[in-house]
Amino acid sequence: MPRSGAETRSHLLKVAGELFYAKGIRATGVDLVAVEAGVAPTTLYRQFASKDDLVGSYVEGVDLAFRDRFASAIAAAGAEPRDQIFAIFDDAIAQAAQDHFRGCPAQMALAEYPDPASSAHANAVTAKSWLLNSIAAVTERLDVDDSVALARQLFVVWEGMLASTMSMGSTGPAQQSRRIVEALLPGE
């Protein structure tokens, strides 16, 4: 049974995402994506005008999935902002400890697509801005002098945790992330 256009697009994004994450974005050609997806290159180009369009859509999709995971961690933590911050970091630490973890897809896109005009870069910046703003929305509810500065500090810990996991594994320096967060947050 043939797929609809929306199903084909979704399938291509899933296959491309797996390849981009495992092999690297620039190292993965559209021909490989088409072969792995079981479609002709012309089918891929009917769904995505270019590889940049495909990559931009991939980054947007991983951002939306991350936002759902972030919201779930916040909701599961209860109403206390301190607990919510710990929950999002604990979730990220657990994700980074998985065997297939290669790093943050948005960080990877920023490294491989430095041109701010590319949709991959723009969508990665949007993802990172959303994360910083979402952390700030939580820190605003803490009894601190400068909730924006605290959000920025937590964001730097977050980014460093993900980046250091790529180079040194989840048992390396990233393992200290929770302790750093504890030191930054006001006591209960």
From TrEMBL:
It comes from the Bacteria. GO terms for molecular function: DNA-binding transcription factor activity; transcription cis-regulatory region binding. Coiled coil: none annotated. The keyword Glycosyltransferase does not apply. Signal peptide: none annotated. Keywords: DNA-binding. Residues 6-66 form the HTH tetR-type domain. The keyword Transmembrane helix does not apply. InterPro entries: Homeodomain-like_sf, HTH-type_TetR-like_transc_reg, HTH_TetR, Tet_transcr_reg_TetR-rel_C_sf. Residues 29-48 bind DNA. This is TetR/AcrR family transcriptional regulator.
